[in-house]
Amino acid sequence: MSIYLDYQAAKPVDVRVISEMTVYLNNKFANPSSLHCDGDEATDTLSDYRRKVADFINAPEPASIIFTSGATESNNLAIIGGAMRIKKKGNHIIISEIEHISILNIAKYLERQGFEVSRVPVDQFGIVRLDKLERLITNKTILISISTASNEVGSIQPIKEISDIAVKNKILFHTDAVASESIIPFDVQKIPVDMLTLSSNDIYGPRGVGALYLKKGVRVNPIIIGGGQEKGMRSGSENIPGIVGFGKAAEIMKSEIDDESVRLKLLRDKLIKGILETIPKSYLNGHPEKRLPHNAHFRFDYIEGESLILSLKDEKIAAATGSACSSKTLEPSHTLIAMGLLHEEAHGSLMITLGRDTKEEDVNELLEKLPNIVKRLRLLSPLTPPDLIKKYNEVNE
Ligand code: PMP
Q1: 70 Cβ inside 6 Å of ligand 1
Q2: Which of 52, 67, 303, 331 sits most deeply, having the most CB atoms within 10 A of its CB?
Q3: 228-235, long-range: CB < 8 A, 24+ apart
Q4: How far apart are CA 382 and CA 384, in angstroms?
Q5: In what order do the strands lie in the sheet with 349-353?
Q6: What is the pLDDT of residue 14?
Q7: Domains of the chain, each with CATH number or no CATH
């Protein structure tokens, strides 16, 4: 088993979640749409676990939670369903330049349907430029979708300020909270977003289940049509074991998130300090303070990120160059490019995301192995300048 430092890509399912789900996979398998007693019981189960997910984000009404198959579907429902619902009011949508690929591709889809999409730029730290956002708003703007935090560089967005701008201009506001949901609590009563995407696996629940929170009164057009489950907003027989797992994971996360956040921040800071101090020409990507407590994202001059990941793989350390969902493209990360990095700089990145099973020993091992890996790759690279090679060789002598 590797030292796993890629928690943004996938998380294990909590054992307490698994044991709670098991009974709903065999004994309590009924469909909540059935009229018999077992069906009634399934309906009660659905509402109990809907309440747990609602409580997780402090939503006053459990009915505001629509269960989906995951974050991608929730983003589709929010943005396509939301835009289609109010398209008579206007056809302009705003997202940020650094959204998750699911949102970038939804935006492209909507452009093909005749919507206009503006992409608000970010600063060098990956934080959305509020001044630019305000300037992009027109009387045709109907929806803004900006994630709570970057799923790559971990920069935390000024969501309250963005929400205030949306409220002031009477624009629907959606936020994808997946990148931050395991590490920063979100309270929809304090930040009154209209729509919010959640994913179960990102809080140590099972995959294949997620939710869209819809503030009371907010309506979207369904994108999956069928038997009318989830108040007609998401048809398909409810995934009761998945929803039970999601609800249980939400309940556990709500009680553990603050401690976990403090614990991981200490490890993350040790990692950042250690890497920047021991590896020459290494840089932290993203904001130094306004960043997710479990995220450390680096860039190393004269190195290709993928060779770094493969060298770490040989040492049984699992890390990433960026978002797993975008790993099929050979293009450099759109987030890093939007932050102003050059293509060659964006190719030399390493993304470390810590999680529940990360121990100090794991961080220590990375700190021990990484400087040598970087050095070896640089000594092989034609891009490394002679003075750095000389420096490395002097230390060897
Ligand atoms: N949004 C964000 C911020 C993500 O990190 C991900 C991937 N975990 C998604 C959406 C899509 O999630 P899924 O692949 O589970 O639908």
Answers
A1: yes
A2: 67
A3: 229/33, 230/66, 230/67, 231/63, 231/66, 233/66, 233/77, 233/81, 234/66, 234/67, 234/68, 234/73, 234/77
A4: 6
A5: 282-284, 295-300, 349-353
A6: 98
A7: 3-7+257-396 (3.90.1150.10), 15-254 (3.40.640.10)
Instruction: Outline where the chain has alpha helix (H).
Output: 15-25, 37-56, 71-76, 82-85, 101-112, 130-136, 159-168, 240-278, 305-314, 334-338, 343-346, 360-380, 386-396
Residues 115 and 108: their CA atoms lie apart, in Å, by 9
Candidates 25, 325, 337, 367; catalytic one: 325
CA 349 to CA 307: how far, in whole Å?
A: 10
Tokens of 211: 């939710």
pTM of the model: 0.96
Q: Which atom of ligand 1 approaches the CA of 73 most closely?
A: 16
Q: Which helix (H) or strand (E) holds 142?
A: strand 141-145
Tell me the per-residue pLDDT of 104-119, one tens digit each, with 9 for 90 and over. 999 999 999 999 999 9
What are the tens digits of pLDDT across the range 269-300? Answer: 999 999 999 999 999 999 999 999 999 999 99
Please tell me the distance from the alpha carbon of residue 365 to that of residue 57, in angstroms, as a whole number: 36
Q: Is 6 in the pocket of ligand 1 (CB under 6 A)?
A: no
Is 37 considered catalytic here?
no
